[in-house]
Each structure stands twice: as structure tokens, then as C-alpha cells.
Specification:
about 140 residues, mainly alpha, Arc Repressor Mutant, subunit A, 7 helices
């Protein structure tokens, strides 16, 4: 397999690995009960500034309905606030509150679900485990 074929295989496999092992439902360590999705909302808003629900939905790759529900849950905790656009009162932005910024800073998110990942890795042979780790390290190695 040449480098192009290998890159295409990694590109095809990575989304499936992420979907299978992503940690979205469990609380984030140190995050005061935040789920990974809640943390994603806070961290993206902290980096990008106020966004509309549509812009946030696009970034999170969720429907507007799912994003609205997620923002409602985060807002109920006082971690985000909705702000009306002064120039166009129909537009509403979502922004992180001071409490939300503190909660996001204290969180230690995990992208992959540890327990599920451990079970999957246990099914691998020691050689497969070593090969996986060596391959990931090589993939991340800088020039």
C-alpha cells in the first residue's frame, strides 16, 4: 500500500473510530457535570466569540434543533447566555458567561471514551497494540 492509499484508508477509518469511541454522554473530569458536548459548546464559544445557534450548529455538526436543546441545557446551568443583536433584534447570539468560562477552564475533556477503548484494545494482540501506538506516533510525528 502506498502513502496515498494509506492516507485514504486512515481518512475513511478515523470517522468510524471517532463515532464508536467518542465520549459525549459521560461527564468531563473536573467539569462539574459537563458532558463532552457541553464542553465543546463552551470551548468553541470561548475561542470564536458570540455565535448564532446556526453558526454553532454548523461547527458542532448537529442539527439546529439538537444544538438548541444542548444550548438550553448549558444555559440552564448559567454557563452561556443569549444576547440579542442590537442592529437586528431578530438575531440572537450565544455567549459564554464568566461561570461557563471558569467551568470550561477547569474541565479535563477526553475525546475518546476510556472504558470502551480499553475493552477494544484488550481484544487486540500485544503486537497489534504496539503497532497501533507506533502508527499513531508516526502519524503525528513532525518533519
Amino acid at each position: 500500500m502506498d502513502a496515498t492509499e494509506a492516507a485514504e484508508a486512515v481518512g475513511r477509518l478515523y470517522p468510524a473510530v471517532y463515532r464508536r469511541f467518542k465520549a459525549t454522554k459521560r461527564p468531563v473530569p473536573g467539569g462539574s457535570g459537563l458532558t463532552a458536548r457541553m464542553y465543546a459548546v463552551l470551548s468553541h464559544l470561548r475561542a470564536a466569540g458570540p455565535l448564532t445557534l446556526g453558526e454553532l450548529a454548523e461547527h458542532l455538526q448537529l442539527s439546529k434543533a439538537a444544538t438548541t436543546e444542548l444550548v438550553n441545557r448549558v444555559e440552564e446551568r448559567g454557563l452561556v447566555a443569549r444576547i440579542r443583536d442590537e442592529r437586528d433584534r431578530r438575531r440572537v447570539f450565544v455567549w459564554v458567561t464568566e461561570e461557563g468560562s471558569t467551568a470550561a477552564a477547569a474541565a479535563s475533556p477526553r475525546v475518546l471514551e476510556g472504558d470502551l477503548l480499553v475493552l477494544a484494545v484488550q481484544r487486540m494482540t500485544p503486537q497489534e497494540r504496539e503497532g497501533l501506538i507506533a502508527g499513531l506516533r508516526a502519524l503525528l510525528r513532525e518533519e
